[in-house]
Specification:
46% of the residues are buried. It contains eleven helices and eight strands. Strand 3 and strand 4 form a beta hairpin. It has one domain: Rossmann fold (3-Layer(aba) Sandwich), CATH 3.40.50.300. Helix 1 packs across helix 11 and helix 5 runs parallel beside helix 6. It is an alpha/beta fold.
């Protein structure tokens, strides 16, 4: 039985897609067969795994518009055990087309239910907004992983996301859990990063992952080479952090996360 994790935060620039790519790759490296579904019209997870923009390639857009089976959209990546369903810019149009669609919030959930049980993990990289694509991901997911940047306004967008989480639980997916809150872009040289991290741990307690993702040049460079960090520079601090995060996610049931909402 695969675990479906939505990686979401409507605030941009928090390391969401970096986390989706590198957590997926690290899970695959741990011999957990993983599928990354790029739900973001910007398609950064797609290009970050080495797929150039190609209007002829079938993408998640074709699930929403042509009802293509997800199985037909899967692409193999360079890393054994990691597959991806790409996105493209046409998915902006899907948000409009879905408005009048019956059961519009359930398209991705129903498609995933029809997918053969060959993956240990399915990660959903959400857009930096709370639109119908993000709602589809939250309805389909077992849990949500929330990356939060270690900066002053870190908590500003989280309350809105948690409000959405509560509404989704109430009306669409009562079983949606919090996988964890991930501190990203941590700069150990500044008191601010340490203070924000401590504030978040004080507020959210055990829901915050022990792993912290540092600011790391190699981690920032990797997407431009179309590689996850473990293929670009396995010895970097960024690679070490995401491998550690993968261990935490795999051992999720050994943690004792408190329920939000």
């Amino acid at each position: 039985m695969h675990r479906i994790i939505a990686i979401a935060n409507q605030k941009g620039g928090v390391g969401k897609t970096t986390t989706a790519i590198n957590l997926a790759a690290s899970l695959a490296a741990a011999e957990m067969r993983t599928l990354l579904i790029d739900c973001d019209p910007q398609a950064n997870a797609t290009t970050g795994l080495g797929f150039r923009k190609d209007p002829r390639r079938r993408s998640l857009y074709h699930l929403f518009t042509d009802q293509d089976a997800l199985e037909k959209l899967i692409q193999k990546t360079e890393l054994e055990g990691l597959d991806v369903i790409p996105a493209d810019k046409n998915m902006v149009g899907a948000t409009v087309e879905l408005v009048g669609s019956e059961k519009r919030e359930y398209h991705l959930k129903e498609a995933l239910e029809a997918l053969p049980q060959v993956y240990s993990f399915i990660l959903l990289d959400c857009p930096p907004s709370l639109d119908i694509l993000t709602v589809n991901a939250l309805v389909a997911a077992d849990s949500i992983l929330i990356p939060i940047q270690c900066e002053y306004f870190a908590l500003e967008g989280v309350s809105e996301l948690l409000d959405t989480l509560i509404r989704v639980r109430r009306h669409l997916n009562p079983h949606l859990a919090v996988e964890g809150i991930l501190l990203t872009m941590f700069d150990e040289r500044t008191n601010l990063s340490s203070q924000v991290a401590q504030d978040l741990r004080d507020f959210f307690g055990s829901q915050v992952f022990q792993t912290v993702i540092p600011r790391n040049i190699r981690l920032a460079e990797a997407p431009s080479h179309g590689k996850p960090i473990i293929l670009y520079d396995i010895k970097s601090r960024g690679a070490e952090s995401y491998l550690q995060l993968a261990k935490e996610v795999i051992n999720h049931d050994k943690r004792d996360p408190k329920s939000t909402g």
